[in-house]
Amino acid sequence: MPSCTQSQPDPAAARPTKRLRAAVIGLGVGEAHVAGYQGHEACDVVALCDFSRERLETVGAKFPGIELRDSADAVLDDPDIDVVSIASYDNYHYEHIVRAIANDKHVFVEKPLCLTEGQATHIRQLLGAQPSVKLSSNLILRQCPRFIALKERIEHGDFGELFLLEGHYEYGRLHKITEGWRGAIDFYSVVYGGAIHLIDLMLWLTGDDVVEVAAFGNQIASRGTQFKYNDTVVAALKFAGGVVGKVGVSYGCVRPHFHELKVCGTKATFINGDPHGLLYESRDPNVAPTPVTQPYPGASKGALIEGFIDAILEDAEPPVGKEDVFRTMSVCLAIEKAAATGTTCPVRCIE
């Protein structure tokens, strides 16, 4: 007589058999990537790299047993490394990505992807020639529980038809550009480094493309310092489906770091706040909004890495795929151009 007891799956048999060897270049925000890789059962972090020997040794002491290297090339040319996080200064991203792809390494890059349209086009071409290589970027607001819940409400129809999105990246760390590496390199964009998060969030929430932008910027907050570029930029966005948007970024604002967001639909309005967001479902001033209490930001800076590793192992698209990265970068490039020229600029698809 057959037994009614079902056999239990062997946990060991369910685990991936292939192990990936990962390295992290740049140990500022890159330090948070280490925990992301170490949290995946099929990944080992085998090398850490930073230009600063002091920083390398300080971070390395927290992760004993991982090899420390002060040369990015030594990491990128190592045939035993499968995946690399590129968290170096922005002006190094392009050359590090190009070298990683040439050496058949999967790339998880801190934003921005690169600094020019020409660089983005070249990266796209290299990926086209190396279709097995996975690329993602750390557009981390997609992992915020509050924004995940917001997207679910939008997709469920709770907002009706969207017509307006507004977002502002309040950096609140002026010293990062007046004293740090951001003001010392040849070019730094607060759009690429900050507004990019709200731009990607808007693209993700709407599922639509931005086709045209206008933008203005100034450098009042950082005037007289080492920083030579706009520290504040505001842009108007035209979406393909008719939604309009506004996105801003301020590195000189006098407030702690925060992501302002307003989403307006024909049935509801969401406003992000601290400690909670607000959901308005009535125009009646006597009807109180509903508090939105899901955690914000609620995600570590390495939270996207687990899904990235899964995508490599399963030959699938990462949670933030290359198409997402290029769509968001295309909008950023257009905003930077519009702010520099004072003209309305179309958003050109990177091909």
Describe the structure.
There is one protein chain. The chain has helices at residues 11-14, 30-38, 53-60, 72-76, 93-102, 117-129, 145-156, 175-178, 190-206, 305-314, 322-341; strands spanning 20-25, 43-49, 67-69, 83-86, 106-109, 135-137, 162-170, 210-218, 232-239, 244-250, 258-265, 269-271, 277-280, 290-292, 345-346. It is of the alpha/beta class. It folds into two domains: 15-133, Rossmann fold (3-Layer(aba) Sandwich), CATH 3.40.50.720; 141-299 and 321-346, Dihydrodipicolinate Reductase, domain 2. A nine-stranded mixed beta sheet has the order 14-13-12-11-7-10-9-8-15. Helix 7 (145-156) runs parallel beside helix 9 (190-206).
Task: Name the CATH superfamily classification of the largest domain.
Answer: Dihydrodipicolinate Reductase, domain 2
What's the β-strand tally? Answer: 15
Report the order of strands and helices.
Answer: HEHEHEHEHEHEHEHHEEEEEEEHHE
Termini, distance in Å?
A: 64 Å
Which residues sit in consecutive blocks of at least 5 with pLDDT less than 50? 1-16
- Which structural class best describes the helix and strand composition? alpha/beta
- Main sheet: strands, sense, barrel: 9 strands, mixed
Overall pLDDT: 95
List its traits.
single chain; 351 residues; alpha/beta; Rossmann fold; 11 helices
Strands, helices and their partners?
Blueprint (H helix, E strand, L loop, with lengths): L10 H4 L5 E6 L4 H9 L4 E7 L3 H8 L6 E3 L2 H5 L6 E4 L6 H10 L3 E4 L7 H13 L5 E3 L7 H12 L5 E9 L4 H4 L11 H17 L3 E9 L13 E8 L4 E7 L7 E8 L3 E3 L5 E4 L9 E3 L12 H10 L7 H20 L3 E2 L5
Helix pairs in contact: 5-6, 7-9, 9-11
